[in-house]
Design brief:
single chain, Amino acid/polyamine transporter I, 0% strand, globular, disordered C terminus
């Protein structure tokens, strides 16, 4: 049990110590007006209280990631806890913080525009398409996941819930951000945290042994390699590129730059806490990884959530826990489509104050999303994992370039960027959706590819002086 609380303490200290350090490196300006004020339009640019922005950001970035990911990651054993803690503090929180703060500094720009400003026009064009596709995948995944969970505990079939969620997502995508998202998501956020804590309390009360397989060895019953698969599987609970698409949306609602650390860095740390809870539940509720894997193979992560919740909290408490978990993908699914609308509006330069212009983008977007949702869900999820971490890698390199140009400590982004680059390249060469090579060869390619990108980064950054201006050599 002490390992769990030490991990929680590490995350809290990470927020107060490393989070403060990262904030100082960036240098927020409390006297500078934010886009929520300078570009107020009553739709997307709206000032909201900091506590509300924090809770909305938490739900936006969460999805089923900090629950399903850690449950699947628990198959690898307690090593997953180390990745959640280190990844959240030094990777995910830095990634989320800068993607939000750079958006504020750039007038509320979406992530492809921020990437383009630092990595060039070609990358901007690539990431516009890449980000929209990723957000469509997120929206579709976060239609299917909650629909499956609700169909497990009701008499309604999954297609009915899919239809209901698509209608809701469409409405939430075009309404002003403070009408639905800003009003009910803070309530959902509190419910989510409360139910997670309640499950942990009951785990203790009912006398479950924490981490019965306490080892850092890979105990995956399928024999899958920890590297690089675990770092793709546990994404939202440690670092996730999807978050970079959400932070700019909340950057348009913050009234002061000094609140950025609490909103962006803090929400990622809280998501790390949620991921720790569910990883611990998955490792401690079942006697071993084989037992967990057996249920996963028949009922999936949603079935694991249902089993743990109903056993620990009883029928009523279990339903409430499952419903609170449903809030996560729903709250991320609608904002995924909303973020896609904003990205398309940004590069097409279509003002979004008019309802007609919002519909002009939203209707085709949802038609495409509905068509794609008819494909194999498992295949979508596999490509989503790689695409998600590829975006995270790209955003980290964007942050590193920005900091280097500003003559600031770029290593806080460069080091996690190097790690994620190795993860993404190794995964693509090892995975069946990629080249399907051996883990040894894939790792070598990943390391060599990472070194090549790092050398290119150092070479390019020599062209910048202290003031960030390019010089000719």
């Amino acid at each position: 049990m002490y390992i769990f609380f030490l991990a929680i303490l590490a995350l809290v200290l990470g927020y107060y110590i490393y989070g403060t350090f990262v904030d100082r490196v960036f240098g927020p300006k409390s006297d500078k007006e934010t886009p929520a004020i300078t570009k107020h339009d009553g739709i997307d640019f709206i000032v909201m209280p900091t506590w509300k922005v924090f809770l909305v950001q938490l739900l936006n970035i969460a999805g089923v990631g900090p629950i399903f990911g850690p449950i699947l990651g628990a198959l690898y054993g307690p090593s997953a806890l180390i990745w959640i803690v280190i990844g959240s503090i030094f990777g995910g929180a830095v990634h989320d913080y800068f993607s939000g703060m750079l958006s504020i500094r750039d007038g509320g720009s979406s992530i492809p525009e921020i990437i383009g400003s630092n990595l060039g026009k070609t990358m901007k064009i690539i990431m516009r398409g890449f980000s929209v596709v990723l957000l469509l995948l997120v929206g579709i995944v976060f239609v299917s996941a909650p629909a499956q969970m609700l169909s497990n505990i009701t008499d309604w079939g999954m297609p009915i819930y899919v239809g209901i969620f698509f209608v809701y997502y469409f409405i939430a995508t075009i309404l002003p951000v403070d009408k639905i998202i800003g009003k009910i998501y803070p309530v959902f956020g509190v419910a989510l945290v409360f139910m997670a804590i309640a499950l942990m309390v009951m785990l203790v009360v009912k006398g479950y042994e924490f981490y019965p397989q306490l080892t850092i060895d890979n105990i995956n019953p399928q024999g899958l390699p920890m590297w690089p698969l675990m770092f793709i599987t546990i994404a939202c609970g440690a670092i996730s590129g999807f978050h970079a698409t959400q932070s700019p949306m909340m950057a348009r609602t913050i009234n002061n730059e000094k609140n950025g650390r609490a909103v962006f860095y803090g929400s990622m740390i809280m998501e790390g806490v949620i991921a720790l809870i569910w990883a611990t539940l998955a490792m401690s509720f079942f006697h071993n990884s084989e037992e967990l894997n057996e249920l996963l193979s028949t009922a999936g992560p949603a079935g694991v959530v249902n089993k743990i919740s109903t056993t620990l909290l009883g029928p009523i408490g279990g339903v409430l826990a499952v419903v609170s978990v449903v809030f996560l993908p729903v709250s991320s699914g609608d904002t995924a489509f909303r973020s896609a609308r904003l990205i398309i509006a940004d590069f097409m330069k279509v003002d979004q104050k008019s309802t007609a212009k919002r519909l002009l983008i939203a209707i085709p977007l949802f038609i495409v999303g509905f068509i794609v949702s008819k494909t194999d869900f498992g295949m979508i999820w596999r490509y989503f994992g790689w695409a998600n971490q590829t975006l995270a890698m790209t955003v980290l390199w964007t942050i590193a370039v920005y900091l280097r140009k500003q003559n600031k400590l770029h290593w806080i982004a460069t080091i996690p960027a190097l790690f994620m680059t190795a993860v993404v390249i190794s995964f693509m060469f090892y995975s069946e959706i990629g080249f399907g090579l051996s883990i040894e060869i894939s790792t070598i390619v990943g390391v060599v590819g990472t070194l090549a990108i790092f050398i290119l980064f150092l070479f390019k950054m020599k062209k910048y002086k202290k003031d960030g201006q390019q010089v000719i050599k």
